[in-house]
Amino acid sequence: MILLAYFASLLIGLSLGLLGGGGSILTLPVLVYLFGVGTVEATAYSLFIVGATALASIVPKAKAGHVDVRTAFWFGLPSVVAVYLTRAYVMPWIPDPIWTGDGWALSKSTGLMLLFAVLMLAAARGMIVGRKPAKAEAEAQQPMGSAAKIGVVLAEGAGIGVLTGLVGAGGGFLIIPALVLVTGLEMKVAVGTSLTIIAAKSLIGFTGDLGHLELDWALLLSVTAVAICGMVIGTLLSKRVASAPLQKAFGWFVLAMGLFILSREFFV
After folding, report:
1. Beta strands at 99-101 and 104-106: parallel, antiparallel or unpaired
2. For the chain, is the Cβ count within 10 Å smaller at the N or the C terminus?
3. Distance between CA atoms of 32 and 176, rounded to whole angstroms?
């Protein structure tokens, strides 16, 4: 089981390197179901693993001119604040169980996994269906400096920050479409900018857990190291492999994982 767990950790980084996102959606189920980490602790571990892996991938993206610093700031600032506040104050405040009635209780762990499964289904749909270029061009006409566009970017950044804080996913599957549709960034630049935002908000958000969670640093650092190795391999392979069919195939895999989590949390 431990070998399977570390192989899955390699896939997290591999998908990030190949597709520029999506790998973080696997981190929570890998930690919970394969490594046996508690759900609340796993959301914190996920933030560190995803943040560190994204950070390691930023340098080559920046050298290639695929990071828009201004957009990363406007989108990342509210996201960083939101994810930190969520981890430091909202997560400890959520009761356990969340709800009870008629002899049945919804535990905090189950509630978080169900929310995560819903996000996985949304991510899978985006990967399988893809985006509509015509719609993207129509919604990206306003310049980034306009007050309306900055307001939308701030709001979306804060919203994604809250979701990231709750489930520990980097949110690239939400950030990249938002950057393309709202700011009009070209896809490669959106990917690099997204990774910059993910690294900042995930690692800073992780610090919000340090005061109230006991962490297994040996496990955390070993999984992170394997994921970074996968990211390096994926980055090298991405230069030789077309990403579009891989993204769609990965989307179907994420869909299956989301349905598995829903069925497991409801019926097991």
Report:
1. antiparallel
2. C
3. 26
Q: CA-based angle 35:39:44, to the nearest 5? A: 90
159, two tokens: 């919203």
Q: Which one-letter amino acid corresponds to residue 83?
A: V
Question: In whole angstroms, how far apart are CA 128 and each of 68, 245, 246?
Answer: 26, 9, 10
Give the list of residues 6+ apart from residue 17 with CB closer than 8 angstroms, or none. 57, 230, 231, 232, 233, 234, 235, 236, 237, 238
Contacts of 63 by beta carbon, 8 Å cutoff, 6+ apart? none
pLDDT tens for 140-152 read: 445 555 666 678 7
Contact 18, 237 (CB under 8 A): yes
pTM to 2 decimals? 0.81
Q: How far apart are CA 43 and CA 162, in angstroms?
A: 13
Q: Give the domain extent around 246.
A: 2-267
Token pair, residue 253, equals 């895999």
